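User: Structure please.
Assistant: Input sequence and predicted structure:
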Amino acid sequence: MSVADLFEPLTLLHGPAMRNRFMLAPLTNQQSESDGFASSADQDWMSQLAQGGYALVQTAAANVEAGGIAFARQLGIHTDEHLPGLTQMADSLRAGGTLSAVQLHHAGWRANPHLGGVPLPASDKTWPGVRALTTEEVERIRDSFIAGARRAERAGFDGVSIHGAFGWILSEFMSPEMNDRTDAYGGNVENRARFTLEVMEGIRRATGPDFQIGWRLSIERYGLQLEELRDITADILDRELIDYLDLALWDSTQIVQEGPMRGRSMLSVFTEIPRRGVRIGAAGKITTARRASEMLEEGCDFVLIGRGGILQRDCPKQVQADPEYATPKLPVEASFLREGGISERFINHLRGWPYFVRPGSV
């Protein structure tokens, strides 16, 4: 395949088609207001992305319950009072011709108590002195994900992406190491996947026929088992419970290091699953037009741009203009980001990664 193939449209099971194969990954930016309301910086960020040539743009992780907050200035979608700001974001993206999705999130055991978060682990052993969620509390959080999706639809977003990665609550429940429950949400792999499946099924029932559902999945750390996740994903794809799978890989070229799939590319473990009408994409150090096109050859339907989207808000347009395009080299000066339109709050968040913002740069 050539770079030109990245600009072919892609139909989804529900709603309008993607106009090309570029999706913006959900990017933590810590630039919302302290109560979860969309800030002027959020609106400016969405306006920039709306003109960037993406087929679909995901928001930063939006917490579905106030107690599920993970980090300072996190976007919220847990109350109707958030709707005006969310609506403005959706309107901006639609005006730019891109599809839109809110990433739905709950931190679970990783909720930050210093920000009003309430750690809610799957297991009694996760945090000393912190009890596991009751069955009724699991069901309440499930319903909060569904309520968040309904708010996203009311705000005018084309869909939602369910955050099932990085040890957050849905990912945690998948882990045999972190979930030792004895109710319907723990034990065998079917029970550990139940939480995620009920969220997906509930959102589909609660929203309209054109509403799109994505799922972000990571494989590394937190006791997650590759073979189990592959089997769960195969079931979800076979049942067409989602429109697209977003594989959050640290590196899209990474190789499985252990177990029965040792030596295979992590990407191939999932792209070889029969997907029926579901689309599959992946993130992970996609820094050149050439690598993006290679991912289509390796079985992806679309690619997710993360760092490249921060460095150059119109990354897809850059690729379309130059088949040899490569993103700017990291680390960059803070002034480079500032001059490109990145907010000071976002820059301060990025300073947490020395490989991204050059230490000491102003």
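The chain has a mean pLDDT of 96.
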